[in-house]
Structure formats: structure tokens, C-alpha cells
Amino acid sequence: MALRIQTFDNIRGGNTLYKALTHPHAAAPGHALVAALAARPPTAIVDPLGAAEGFAEIFGLGGVELAGIYVQNIAQLGKEVHGFRTLPIDELADSGARSVLVAAFDAERLIGQLQSYLPAGAEVLSLDRMRIPEERLTNRRAYLDPLNFATNFALFRDTGALHSRVVTVNYWAGYGAAEIACWLTLFDGNGEIIAEWCERAGNAIAALTIDSREVRAHFKLGDFAGQLFIHVAGAAGHDVVKYALDTFGESGLVIDGALSCTHDANAWPSDRYAGLPAPAPGERVILWVQNSHPTPIPAGAIALNPMGEEKHAAIAEPIGPFASRAIDVAELLPGLAWPRQIEVRAGKHIVRPRYEVVADGHRRIAHVNVERADLKPNPELPELGRWLGKGYLLPAPILPRGTILHIIGYMDNTPNNKNIPDPRNWQGSGNRSIANMFIDLGQLMPLTDAEFQAEMAKRREKLGPNRPT
């Protein structure tokens, strides 16, 4: 079952509330908050900003006796939230609640406004109980400022012969950031924290490298294969954490089995991902399923299906909070072979996952691509030809100096299209589709003025009297 929480939409972009609720350092206080509510039943939830459903989806309220859900916005009255029809805030006093959860961060002002509506003797709690440590915040005055949650996950592992390297850049310094601190939390395959530290990046544009060999030696770790959670404090300009991920053998040679690179995970979990290749003869395709949340992924919640088909095969075992599993694609979809492509039904449980193609001692790493669920085909697209004209394929045109090419592409990025993943995500050669790449795949040959005139003369002669005047 997919998580009922909004992570990203086409209008507002990323949902900061989602990151605040699922942050690894919000996990323990979030569960403690649920326990506090369960210990003082019944509980009324005041939901001024629409956060109650997301909180319940991540942390679960099965053990909490609810008295009702109350809203201030009249447009939200009567809507169903967690199985209850929302009620007006002025009915809160009659709820009989012994605890009241204000489902909001920075809730002090809201709690002050509620005083005359509270049931007698009720204890008031808020999501502020699950704030992450202050030193990790960029803007301490507005908790849900996107800059407070400049985060991402990376596949990170180290064995006797296989290592990882994450490389990013303090590009926030170019936006005026004063001091960057990169907080790092390393989870093992079972989702347990095995190391945590901070890398100071200063205020200059410079590279920052996290090498698994150095981490292993510093923290005296054994073999591990899990995920690295990256949280940048002090960010300016934007909240996007980009990085390159190297996977390499002991010497960097093919004999060690790996020398490959991919890039960041895209920090917003999606319902579905596309572009996972089926294995060719002699290959194994390994999909890394890494839980991005402090709640388990239920058995059967993630599944694979051949692209364009609805029949799917589910992962039968549950996956614990922040845990990782290496899934052999052929075990779920036996008989499916390259060049067939596979869709991942992820249910918003994981950020964009990595996969590896292993064959003949070689190991290549890449990622699948986001399928957008919030887009719909625009029925007006076919009519644009009236204003934009007809498109042409131009085989070897001769373009004068200063020519400007206008290239327009129409793409259906909805689940209705069974072939094309999200074109925002880079794709390249190898066992990956390039059907969604709207770029210039042609060749450019620069000409001097003399060469240009000579080529034009040849073409005029070839066209003869039919050439344009």
C-alpha cells in the first residue's frame, strides 16, 4: 500500500513537512509523542495546516484513542482525515479530550489562540516535540523553511574489496552562505545507526568528499552496506543536495569488480519509478531497496512489473525503518530479459533507488527514474501547431552564423504513458532507455566563412533552377 503523504507536486515543488516528519532525528521523538498521546486518552487533534494525516501515516495512531479532528479553515470542514469527519474548532471544548495534539510546528502562537476552546484539564502537545537538534537548522525562526531540510540519501557501503565515495560541492557559498556544516548519519543494512559525525565545509566553494574507507577506519567498523543520510545546515539559495557516487574496487581496476559512478538520489519519494533494465544473458540486475522512513515498509508494499503490464511481483518481506535490501530482479520476474524494461511500484516508501548490473566480474551502477503522478496530458497540445508551425527533421542543414534554433518537445509524463519516465532526470547510454531524452542528438560541424560559401554554392548548383530565390 502506498503512503498517503504528499512528497512533491508540480505547483509547489517539494513538501517540507514531509521531510520534517521523516527526518531520522525526528523518529524517536515522533514515536515518543504518539506514546504520550496514547497514555492520556482520548486525544483531540487540531489540524490547522493539514499535517495530521501525514503524521498519522508515518508514525501510526492505532494505539491512540481519538476524540475527533478539528479545523479552523471553514473550507476544510467535513473532510475525512484519518477516518474522522473534521469538526469546527469551537466544538473542541465539548470533545471530552484529556490530551490535545496541535498538528503543527512553531505551534506556540496557535496554542495561545486555542486557550478558550480547550477541554478542561487537557494536556496540549504539538509537533514541536519532534524538532531535530537546533544546530542542524539554518533558520531557527521558521522550522518548515525548506533550507532547514537540505537533505538526501546515498547508497553507502564498504567491504573487503568494494568501496563508496560521495562527492559534493559547497555550492551554497555561491549564494552567500556563511558557514556550511554537513551532518552525516550512516545506517547499516538493518537500519541501525552505526556512525554519525559532522563535516565542516566552511564558506568557500569547494569539494567535500566522504570516502567509505576513511569512515570505516575512523569508526572501527566491519563490512557494511546501507545508506548515508546527508543533512546540510547553513544552506542558502536552495535546499537541493547534489552529489556524485563512486563505486570502486580496491585498486580501481576491473579485476576488483567495480569502477562505476552515478549521481544523487532525488530526495522526494515517488509512487513509481521506471527504467530498470531486465538482465541480459549472463547478467544479474540488483535493485537496492532502501527505506527512507522511520516506519517499516509492509510486506508486499513494493513490487516490480514489466513496463506496460499491470501484473506485478511483490517483495514478500517487510523492510525495517531506514533498512536496505538488495533484490535480485530475476528472482521476482524470472524469464524477463533485456531489452525489456521494468517498473518499480514504490508507493512513496523510498527515494529514487540504485541498481547494479553485475556480469563477468564487472559491476555497473545507475538509478531508475521518477514517474510523475501529479501531471495530466494537456488536451490543447495538438492545437499549438496553429501558432508554432509544423516541425521538421533537418538532415544536414546549412545554418548561417547567428542562427537561433527553437526546439520544442511535447511529452506525456503521466502513468498513462507506459514508456517514458521523468525527463528531468538525466539518462545516458548502456542498459537504460533514452526515449525521454529531448536533446540534440545530431552532430555539429563548424564552418569558416569560406567553407560556408563553398558549401552553399554546391547546394545551389545541385538544386538548379528549383532553388529558392
Write up this protein.
The protein has eight helices and 26 strands. With 469 residues, the chain is an alpha+beta fold. It has two domains: 8-130, Rossmann fold (3-Layer(aba) Sandwich), CATH 3.40.50; 146-371. It is globular and about 95 Å long.
Task: For this entry, give a set of tags.
globular; alpha+beta; Rossmann fold; 469 residues; 2 domains; 28% strand
Question: In angstroms, what separates the terminal alpha carbons?
Answer: 65 Å
The fraction of residues assigned to DSSP E strands is 25-35%
The count of helical stretches stands at: 8
Average pLDDT, rounded to a whole number, is 85
**Sequence stretches where pLDDT stays below 50 over 5 or more residues:** 391-395, 422-441
Tertiary shape: globular
Helix content: 10-25%
Q: Strand count, sense and closure of the main sheet?
A: 5 strands, parallel
Radius of gyration: 27 Å
Determine the structural class based on helices, strands and strand pairing: alpha+beta
What is the count of β-strands? 26
Number of domains: 2
Going across the major beta sheet, what is the strand order? 7-4-3-8-9
Structure, briefly:
With 469 residues, this protein is α+β, with helices and mostly antiparallel strands. It has helices at 16-22, 24-38, 52-59, 108-114, 212-219, 329-332, 385-388, 449-463; strands at 8-9, 13-14, 43-46, 66-71, 80-81, 84-85, 87-88, 99-102, 123-126, 150-158, 162-169, 180-187, 193-202, 207-211, 224-233, 244-249, 259-263, 272-277, 284-290, 303-306, 313-314, 324-328, 341-345, 354-359, 362-367, 369-371.
